[in-house]
Design goal:
Length: about 325
């Protein structure tokens, strides 16, 4: 059986900052109930992919044909070493550098290859934000942190500026982690700081209100039907007092655990130099050709140039 030490050392070699393993099973009933309530209340703002494959989300063992037994969960820090100048329209710091999806997938595949070199019969499947996996729950169970009131996974060492990559395995491995104690205590800084009141109870966020949805997903996947009506109503609301035109870091920036966390030194997360100078007028005047060139490998392209221009006009920065 693969040991925790072996897996963690292979994860470090693959470039991850932290790694843990958890034996897979069905999600606890209270978590599932809370997820269903959130969907029924349209907290997901009609993002259809969150409604799909509910059975597999409830029991990720179903995500591999032969039955998955273990979740190896990895963290990759993106806490920046420097920030955009504050007078410029702001971009969430996860989008300062390269798109993390491909980057993390590649690292997960090299981790899987290292584990298979030790145990050739092992099969695995990688997930980065794209499949019905409750990544933060499994990360907590693997001992990597706790679920904060802002819904983020918070690691004592790395804070919440981390990407989560999940590798499901066909075999059991040593997994003796205990989920860390929730250290939010009586703090409510994230809830108080959210400019749109998007943070609900039980660490749930109302995506319709959240600027991460409103500045990105609303442009990437325009809502339909009733969701579109609600989105139009949201557009008519008083603009949020926020400096962000792509995503939003406010509820993470105020979290004391992020102040303590070390900045990431990953070269892939280096800031695009243009983000140090782009003013609101530069964004509004940007051509499609320049947008495609500058943001070719960036998550910012998901919001589209038209969407970014709308964000610049719509939000108070
Ligand atoms: S990301 Fe911004 S808008 Fe969304 S919950 Fe956090 S503070 Fe609120
Ligand atoms: S700001 Fe406070 S309540 Fe919110 S996640 Fe951080 S520690 Fe928890």
């Amino acid at each position: 059986m693969l040991t925790q030490d072996f897996i963690q050392s292979a994860a470090r070699s693959a470039g991850f900052d932290a790694c843990g393993a958890a034996a897979l099973g069905a999600l606890p009933d209270d978590m599932l109930r809370s997820y269903h309530e959130w969907l029924q209340g349209s907290g997901h703002a009609g993002m259809r992919y969150m409604e799909r494959h509910l059975q597999k989300r409830a029991d990720p063992r179903l995500l591999m044909k032969s039955g998955a037994r273990t979740a190896v969960v990895t963290l990759f820090s993106y806490k920046p070493q420097r920030r955009q100048p504050p007078h410029l329209p702001q971009v969430s710091c996860y989008a300062y550098g390269a798109d993390y999806h491909a980057l993390l997938k590649q690292k997960l595949w090299s981790l899987l290859a290292a584990l298979q070199a030790e145990q050739p019969s092992l099969q695995g499947r990688t997930f980065v934000d794209t499949a019905p996996v409750q990544e933060r729950y499994w990360a907590a169970l693997a001992g990597l942190g706790w679920l904060g009131k802002n819904g983020m996974l918070i690691s004592k060492e790395l804070g919440s500026y981390t990407f989560i990559g999940v590798l499901l395995l066909s075999d059991e491995v040593e997994s003796n982690a205990t989920p860390p104690k929730n250290r939010c205590g009586s703090c409510t800084r994230c809830i108080n700081a959210c400019p749109t009141g998007a943070i609900m109870d039980k660490g749930r966020v109302n995506a319709r209100r959240c600027l991460s949805y409103r500045t990105i997903e609303q442009h990437a996947n325009p809502p339909h039907g009733d969701d579109a009506d609600e989105a139009d109503e949201a557009k008519g609301e008083k603009p949020a007092a926020s400096p962000y035109i792509f995503g939003c870091d406010i509820c993470q920036e105020v979290c004391p655990w992020n102040r303590k966390a070390k900045a990431a030194a990953h070269s892939e997360m280096q800031m695009l130099p243009q983000l140090l100078t782009l003013t609101a007028n530069d964004w509004l005047a940007m051509s499609a050709e320049d947008f495609d060139k500058i943001f070719e490998h960036s998550p910012i392209k998901r919001a589209t140039l038209l969407g970014m221009k709308e964000n610049v006009r719509r939000f108070n920065f």
